[in-house]
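Page 47, continued from p. 46.
Same chain as before, 402 aa.
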Amino acid sequence: MTDGPNFPVIIRGMTTVWRRLPPWFGRDIILPFAATRIALCLIAWIGFRLLPLPSAFPLSWEIGANGSRHSTGSGVPSAHDFVNMWSRWDSGWYLHIARFGYQYDSSKPSSTAFFPVYPLTIRLLHASFLLPDSDFWYLVAAIAVANICLLVAATYLYRLIQIDYAAPVAARTTLLLYLFPTSFFLSAGYSESMFLMLTVSSFYYARKQYWFSASLLAALATACRSQGIILLAPLLVEYFGQCKPRPAKWNIVTLLFIPIALAALAFYFKVAFGSWTILFDSQRPWGRRFLAPWSTLDWVLGHASGHDWLDFCFLALLAFTTAGAVRLRPSYTTYLLAAVLFFSCWGMLGSVPRFVVVIFPMFIVLSLAMEKSRAFQVAYLTISSILAATFFFLHSQWNWIA
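Result:
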């Protein structure tokens, strides 16, 4: 019978592994990750105590001291500050899917609007560690999955950029990711960091010409978030760019994994709830419907107020970076353009500040621009850091950002 874990041996093993890692991993991935996440935690925690705000959401909830979720009219949690601050708005939908599966009601918002890979991973992590069956531990698993995915995503992004650029560009790009005004979503109970990880790793393996791996990861991204379907276009551009002037090989067929993943999810919802169109129908209670991009922008510019302008500014930032995309690989430029088009096709721009944080070519463009202008670098990083702190302070107390 054992006496329990041998912590000195575990610590020595972890130290040995750490020493074998390349220096850039600790310097450019772990250190800025830790610094930015600790800073965000402190900002929210201090806000809870010094500047409490009323909740802007009548259905706000928290994880109470007993580990169960309950309604609250306050934006300040009564317990588990450092867990509750990362669990606002859509986090509740992912937790519900992880614990109980999907439900659908055409007359109101339903969990079928959220794709399955992230909540399924939460459930698997929770089961793997035999955690107690409570909302608290499911939320802890959700936050753990998000942050692990963020670290893996940043690592793949660094390696992807190193294929074309020097290490300082890669380091600056990952820093821009961590400091983006809505980067806190990458550490919260949201699917953004998992989608980013799957997307960047897919591009990385595409660049290395491992097309089966690239296509499989892109298919998982499509089953993680609806915008994954747009990965088909840039990966096709990358594929034909690599094989030119030679004809395409059989492995181009693997790119069909991407639309097959979406079709498989539609088929599952058809079997479970009796409709092929649930993927679209589930968006209507949130005010989204498929429109031409110019129709969406015309409506937004004609009716925008308050938060609509914040949404528009983030879409404009993404669109603005396409001007500098001429310095990027055609596949990266295609991804930028496809993202702008996709986000403009839903009749509204709600949540765009969150959606754009996963479009990694935007950060490469900004990083390259900072090589040309020290003033731009200082101004952007200062403004972005201030916005990141402000937005997370508001978000942590149930005020809507994206």
